[in-house]
Amino acid sequence: MSLTKKTFVLRINDETYNALAKWAEDEFRSVNGQIEMILDKALKEASRKKLATTGNDQLHKNKA
After folding, report:
1. Does this model's pTM top 0.85?
2. How many domains does the structure of the chain reveal?
3. Is 15 exposed, middle or buried (CB count within 10 Å of its CB: 0-12, 13-18, 19+)?
């Protein structure tokens, strides 16, 4: 994941914001962090973003 972040304005209705805020609180995240998590998951599920690889994944590739 890139360490640089793009800033933009998001306009959503109060009901949606309140639902996001409650969800974020339940998972100990900020609303911004929750939105990022939701978008990241949706992009991966739609094959629009590659899954992150870990050092263990690379080890398994090298052993094969």
Report:
1. no
2. 1
3. exposed
Identify which of 51, 49, 5 has the alpha carbon closest to the alpha carbon of residue 30. 5
Minimal CA–CA distance to 29: which of 40, 37, 18?
37
Residue 8 falls inside a structural domain: no
In a domain, 1, yes or no: no
Structural domain span for residue 35: 14-63
**pLDDT tens-digit series, residues 12-32:** 999 999 999 999 999 999 999
Q: Any residues with CB less than 8 A from the CB of 24 and at least 6 apart, and which?
A: 30, 31, 33, 34
Residue 30, domain member (yes or no): yes
In a domain, 38, yes or no: yes
